Hints:
Elements: E1 5-6, E2 11-16, E3 22-28, H1 38-48, E4 65-67, E5 71-73, E6 80-82, E7 87-92, H2 114-121, H3 137-150, E8 155-163, E9 166-167, H4 188-203, E10 210-217, H5 231-240, E11 245-250, H6 261-264, E12 268-271, E13 274-277, E14 285-286, E15 289-290, E16 295-301, E17 311-314, E18 320-323, H7 337-360
Antiparallel strand pairs: 1-2, 2-3, 3-7, 4-7, 5-6, 8-9, 8-10, 10-16, 11-16, 12-13, 14-15, 17-18
Amino acid sequence: MxxxxxxxxxxxxxxxxxxxxxxxxxxxxxxxQIPLVAxxxxxxxxxxxxxxxxxxxxxxxxxxxxILSGVMEHPDxxxxxxxxxxxxxxxENADQRSKDYSDIKDKFRxxxxxxxxxxxxxxxxxxxxxxxxxxxxxxxxxxxxxARKIVAGVTVRGALVQVGPHAIDRDRWDWSEVGNNPFxxxxxxxxxxxxxxxxxxxxxxxxxxxxxEIVAEGVPAGLGxxxxxxxDADLASALMSINAVKGVEIGAGFAAAEKSGxxxxxxxxxxxxxxAFLSNNAGGILGGISTGQPVVARFxxxxxxxxxxxxxxxDRKGADTEIMTKGRHDPCVGIRAVPVGEAMVACVLADHFxxxxxxxx
Length: 361
């Protein structure tokens, strides 16, 4: 299996399976002399970790990261810093229950990558999905923690803005509320409603989709390149690579199709700090290059395909059958996708920062 690496100058390669011994990644291209210890990475991993509320999978994984390479104590300061060489990271799997999947090893789960993996490789890892499992995204979050240090002046934050048909009230958006509920929701009232709503979804054995919004503030103007190196194209690719994501939009996104030219164009005036935009329908990117405004991206996550409701499917021999998925699954996988989305945006911004510096100094 190839294509386990993303990025150009800031490159991340992940490895490992959901029910293997461990998962890990190699981060290549990180500049030297950046302070880095495991706790810097652990903070972000703890936000993604499963089993923290009844609304996520109850798989108990501590997700303790180990730094295997690429750091050392600086001889002058004694502070552990990056060396400029590849940074190896490892997380041991601690709570695999492969037996939960023994009944479906010859059946294709509807909505999963079972059939396509089998069609491509002639086999699949039925134990939780192997490489197609969201377990792999823990290493993206770890890499994202390093990326944040490269673009230290940029703040990347994410929030869950819609669960099923129920969206937040943007007039009540409060970033300080994101850490006060299990949904990363910036709207306290909607978060309280989602508790009852998702309890019903969970108890019925079903699942529901969601929309996540990522906002990067402090992005300087000039990141990205015209034509085939567009910042928004790389963001869309990175976010679409996250498990279960089926749609990405930048700025106004699909809503721009409903606007007139007068409404959609972000007018400009000269302010005390330089050019100022009167709106941000472009999501902080014009012509594939950042404008200096907040970069805004949203992505839609489909409902978790592993549900208790029996579904029609076929087996590896082509016979019609039914399947009911057991095991521990997220009733709304979009909840834990918030820190994953933040990490992918951070990685893209770090990559483009290094590319920009390499081209223009």
